[in-house]
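User: ok so my PI wants both of these folded by tonight, can you help

Assistant: No problem, let's get them done. Here's the first:
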Amino acid sequence: MALVINNRVRELTSTTGTGDVTLGGAVGGFQTFAAGIGNDNETYYAISINSENEWEVGRGTLSSDSSTMERTEVLESSNSDSAVDFSAGSKEVFCTLPSEKAVYLDANDDPVGVSGGQITDETKTFSNYSNITASRTLTLASGTNYMLVGPITVNDTYVWDVAGSGTLTIV
């Protein structure tokens, strides 16, 4: 099971109550959850019935045939951030990226949404080198996981040496 986010995934549903959402087919111009997310996968969703001012944003898990979606975790809702007891009527459920899960760069290219300030100007500058021809040392926060994004070329050889507590030296 993977967490999948995709564009233009929107279906109708007539589900009531707080249980699983029965998916009823794509809205015109959109794709189904089966096509865009895939069986047994998780996604972030929003569901609303605007005529009743009922809405919910959360993380859902698709069934093995993508005919239903379990409302795995409610992140925000019109019911004090709990599962909404949806009224009768047609609703739309769609794939979304909740703002509290987003990580992005602001107008100054500074990261927003990163907990603990793990991305700093030092790492941003360091990651912008496309070819490193001399040794570079970057001090990392202790106890934090990092992903190095390349390609990084150092004299045509890749050497990753994690030395001491939180220092990465590329030589």
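One down. Here's the second:
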Amino acid sequence: MRYFRCRSFNVTHHIPISWIGAVTLCLTASVACDKLGLGGDKSPMMPTAPPAAGSKIVYTAVGASDATAHGGSIECVPFVDCPNGTGYVQVAARQLRANGFTVTLTNLGIPTAVIGPDFQALSAQYRPGAPVFGNYIDQEMPFVPKDTTVVTIFAGGNEVNTITAALGAGAGASDQLGYIDQQVKAFGADYATLLNGINAHAATRIVVLNLPNLAGLPYLATAGLPQRQAAQRTAVAMSTTVINPLTSQGVTIVDLMCDPRSYLASNYFSDGFHPNDSGYAFIAAEVVRAITLTSYPAPLGSCPPMTLVR
């Protein structure tokens, strides 16, 4: 299998300029640190018990444009209350309230964000036409409120696109398989930093969404075989070697990789990358189950979607 000189692909987020200003303001204003409780000294904890029926849930969402409902019919401005939003974060919050919980939501999602500063730098190098406005470790993790009881995390899609763009520009030319594996390890190191940072100052139940096989999403339907092979290798490795093993640490995993609904074109926005309302709705329903069930199913070790491209 060769990935050499695969075509570069960028997913461009069309973000209103007012949003960019809001993101910049929130990332630089020191008052946000006080408001969101930066600087707690709690020992790392990872409780696994779901919230008691009818209790208060302090829900914090860590993510990128998925958290702000990009692709949905009602998209949300970052960092503000968006009660009618149609993304999985907003729908899950409404469903939890409908189930009798009192929910306070802090949505830290930043459109275009990647998990860490290393991927932000990699994106700046290889995807200059798709600027990244932040990363989870520097601009989201420190602002998880200290009283958070539930955190959801969705990471990896923008990173896969960054890696395939780098390959298309010649990165890892002598060993592209090795380059992919190296970047997956970097993703794993960033994930560990993210989880440790969250648990350092917030005792919280963590629900993580793994990645579907991006090679099976509509946006890559017409891409060349090398790019689809690279996207598959990267996404499957991120899910199976980085995210799924987190179950051993008490993290609950929503298994998008092996869910057939992740591959229905009808669940995607016109860009073929972001979910639409129906796509976000099925994700939200799984997030609610993952938050509230005492025994939520562990991700599968293997499934047909892991090998869509050969």
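The two ends are 9 Å apart (CA to CA). Residues 1-45 have pLDDT under 50 and may be disordered. Good luck tonight!
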